[in-house]
Amino acid sequence: MKTYLTAFLISFAFLVVVTPILIHYGRKWGFVDASNRRTIHQGRIPRIGGVGISLGTLLPLVLLNFYHNGVSEVFFSSLYNPLIIIGGGLLISVLGLIDDIKGVAARWKFLFQIALAVTAYYLGFSIEKISTPVGYFDFGYFSLPITVLWIVGIINAFNLIDGMDGLSSGIAFFVSITILILALHNNIQFVALISAALAGAVVGFLVYNFNPAKIFMGDSGSMFIGFILAVLSLKGASKHSTLVSVLVPIVAMGVPILDTTLAFVRRFLRNQPLFMADRQHIHHILLSKGWNQRRVVISLYGITVIFTALALFSIFLKDREAFLIIAVFSIVVVVLITRLGYLDMLLSKHRTGRENRTEDLLENILIERLSRMPLREMEELIFSLPIRGFTFITDEGETLFESGEKDPVNFLDIPADKEHFLRLYWKGVVPTINSRESLMFTIIAKSLLSFFGAEKKRTLRT
User: Fold this and answer.
1) Sign of the alpha-carbon torsion through 17, 20, 25, 31
2) Distance (Å, whole) CA 451 – CA 445
3) What do you get for the CA distance between the two ends of the chain, in Å?
4) Do you find a cis peptide bond into 20, omega within 30 degrees of 0?
5) What are phi and psi of 190, to 5 degrees?
6) CA 80, CA 405: separation in Å to the nearest integer?
């Protein structure tokens, strides 16, 4: 137990000392996250905190090489363990750092993640079978795609959830502690050690990352955290292959998994690119309801604690009894989906499915007619809604036109195309928008785009 506590304290102390240095040089070298239409923060915040998290997590493992005990013998008994944990962790963190500084195309990041996941699979970080109350279930040829889907999915889940001060790092702490307890229960010592080190690193980072954040972890941190948690959970599950061992990490990581799943479902139903960024993640929706950042983050911490408590409780259950945890987890998820308005969106999509062609024709007619209106009448149309102001902006944050009052919290972005957005500042709380309502606002946004496009052509002619 002293080894795990020491790993936690080393990582924690390292982050507390190193993070201010990263803040200084991040600002000096210009490695900052500037405000734009998708960000919540104000100002230029350094985004290289993930460097500290990755190095802080791996530092106890490197030091362990010089201190021989039972944990070090298990971890270094096979070359595969340090190769995937240390080597893979550094690689994914470096990729994230390059993306934070220069930018990397989504397809190349995705392909790199797949390659790393396939490597991890062939080096023993996989799930090949699972015991159930009715016997073992062997995944067979599906083991590889399931493993790759898990690793790549968790990497991107923590990447997507990292949209608010302290959110990703706080959730990572609770998940790390859960995997630590599971590993101790199953006597998987090196998994417990790395979980303790990661928990210490994210808590040390949280000192500077909690609202108002002085530094962000960036992709170098979020992808590193996702990768480490994904492979640790696989290693813990593969040794025992029990239903409970598989369920624990899934339930514990319920918030980022749910958020990622809903994001892909939402974009699919709206015929949007699956990897297109938006402001309708769970934390954005709660923020749009008038909550401040701290309330949103603490609330999602609370939901994560509920999920981790369910996960830890399942450790002491038999596989047959673990289905009770699945039932409770499912109920909580359904309540969240309903309260956030996703059920209405799904039902609305189903109801309007047969009318798509007619709606497309009507949309084109309305856009053509509305775009011919004088700008003053267009403003009056928008202000006839519960809107206090609006801004027509580009994806880079350039304002093309604005009118009325602004509100830094209660606003909603409606895409006109991939490069232009209509930002509506709401009176009171921003409503949850389902597909039918979104279509109506999109018509206005596209009409404005068509109007300004026509104005630009007239200006060029004159």
Assistant:
1) positive
2) 10
3) 78
4) no
5) -70, -30
6) 58
- Enumerate long-range contacts of 96-100, CB under 8 Å, 24 or more apart: 96/50, 96/218, 96/219, 96/220, 96/221, 96/222, 96/223, 96/224, 97/48, 97/50, 97/51, 97/218, 97/219, 97/220, 99/218, 99/219, 99/220, 100/31, 100/47, 100/48, 100/50, 100/218, 100/219, 100/220
CA gap 40, 283 in Å, rounded: 11
Long-range pairs, 371-379, Cβ under 8 A, ≥24: 371/447, 371/448, 371/450, 371/451, 371/454, 373/447, 373/451, 375/401, 375/451, 378/447, 378/448, 378/451, 379/403
Helix (H) or strand (E) holding 424: strand 420-426
Q: Tokens at residue 446, please?
A: 């596209």
- List, in order of start, the domains of the chain with CATH numbers: 2-247 (no CATH), 354-461 (3.30.450)
Rg from Cα positions in the chain: 24
Residue ranges in 30-75 assigned as alpha helix (H) = 49-64, 70-75
Reported as type and span, the H/E element at residue 457 is helix 435-461
Contact 390, 404 (CB under 8 A): yes
Q: What is the pTM of this model?
A: 0.75
SS3 391: strand
d(CA 8, CA 195): 9
Work out the angle between the directed axes of helices 293-315 and 254-269 (0-180°, nearest 10). 120
Averaged over successive runs of 10 residues, the pLDDT of the chain (462 residues) comes to 87 96 91 61 78 94 74 70 90 94 89 96 85 70 92 93 90 94 86 93 95 91 95 74 75 89 75 64 77 88 91 74 77 81 59 54 79 83 86 81 79 79 77 62 81 59 47
For 149-178, letters b (16+ CB in 10 Å) and e give ebbbbbbbbbbbbbbbbbbbbbbbbbbbbb
